[in-house]
Automatic annotation (TrEMBL):
Pfam families assigned to the protein according to its UniProt record, in alphabetical order: PRC
Protein name per its UniProtKB record: YlmC/YmxH family sporulation protein
Domain PRC-barrel, residue spans: 1-77
């Protein structure tokens, strides 16, 4: 899958049932040694695309459960049973 196929998909936290952001309004942390994506960094933006604060959330790539047609479902490890 190419990055351009991921952009525009909503990130959803499966445990909380809430929208985390849209991939494309995010940054990727890539391991320079192996070229793999380590995590997705979600910035805090308003509806108009203006950055609200310097806070951000980080989703580890391994916490992605499903990549669907319209959304990406995330289940963070620290919440799994």
């Amino acid at each position: 899958m190419r990055y351009k196929e991921l952009t525009g998909k909503e990130l959803i936290d499966a445990h909380k049932g809430e929208r985390l952001g849209i991939l494309g309004h995010t940054d990727l942390e890539i391991n320079p040694e192996n070229g793999r994506i380590e995590s997705i960094v979600i910035q805090d933006f308003s509806m108009l695309g203006i950055k609200k604060s310097d806070s951000h959330a980080k989703i580890r790539w391994k916490d992605i459960e499903v990549i669907g047609e319209d959304m990406i479902i995330v289940k963070p490890d620290h919440l799994k049973d």
